[in-house]
Design goal:
245 residues; alpha+beta; four-stranded mixed β-sheet; 5 helices; 4 strands; Transposase-related; Helix-turn-helix domain of transposase IS66 family protein; coiled coil
Length: 245
């Protein structure tokens, strides 16, 4: 009889322990679910912050076209008070009465518009496409292209050489470029005989034989190109001489 009572007490105590363990297990499962939800929320927050950092990096360190545009001083603010009708009329009269300033040179003469682009009209065009080297085509997509036109010469005819340079950007705007890469990739422009000149190497070499012969003799003498007052002109003259010698 005593043994039966002892066994019943042991069974009841074990059942109570099992009930306590089940209760503890349920509470742990609930707390684990809450922790998983918090982890997912933190992961989403981290991704959002990383995308904001990538956007800020593009605005601060990206190309000029990707940076924040300067605010227009004439742009009205959303929260400015609405001016009265009479004030608006006065502002319009002042704007209409103000003269538009014209571009004037330092010597007082008006600046004339450049007409050198008209020389390229009516000539045959030869298109050359230059693609960038060593680019991951899976990560970049074409976003535009840049055109550069130069006047070239062949015996018996003049033609326009149009250099097309496709521009590529990252497919994922929220991702950062890899090490040594840029957000926007474009092939470099081929060297020109003279800075910002419409004439190509062949035409420049055809029309300036005397200068090239003089430069060739200077180079053969080992004296180099004489110093010039304009460093950029000297640099581009060196390129022209090296290309034509």
């Amino acid at each position: 009889m005593i043994q039966q009572d002892t066994m019943e007490q042991i069974i009841r105590s074990q059942q109570e322990q099992i009930a306590d363990l089940l209760k503890t297990n349920r509470s742990l499962v609930e707390s684990n679910g809450k922790l998983l939800e918090q982890t997912d929320a933190l992961q989403r927050k981290i991704q959002e912050l990383l995308s904001q950092i990538a956007w800020l990096n593009r605005q601060l360190f990206g190309r000029r076209s990707d940076k924040l545009a300067a605010l227009d001083s004439n742009q009205l603010s959303l929260f400015d008070p609405v001016p009265a009708t009479g004030q608006n009329e006065n502002i319009r009269e002042e704007d209409s009465s103000a003269a538009v300033p014209s571009k004037v040179k330092p010597d007082g003469k008006k600046k004339e518009s450049r007409r050198n682009r008209e020389l390229l009209e009516g000539l045959p065009v030869v298109e050359v496409v230059i693609e960038p080297d060593r680019m991951d085509w899976d990560r970049y997509r074409r976003i535009g292209e840049e055109h550069t036109r130069m006047l070239e010469f062949e015996p018996g005819r003049l033609y326009v050489k149009e250099t097309v340079r496709p521009k590529y950007g990252l497919k994922d705007n929220l991702s950062l470029p890899g090490e040594g890469e840029c957000g926007v990739i474009i092939a470099p422009l081929p060297p020109s005989p003279v800075y910002k000149c419409l004439v190509g190497f062949h035409h420049a070499g055809r029309n300036a034989p005397a200068e090239i012969r003089i430069s060739r003799s200077i180079l053969q003498a080992g004296q180099g190109v004489p110093p010039s007052g304009c460093p950029s002109f000297r640099k581009h003259t060196d390129r022209l001489v090296q290309a034509c010698v």
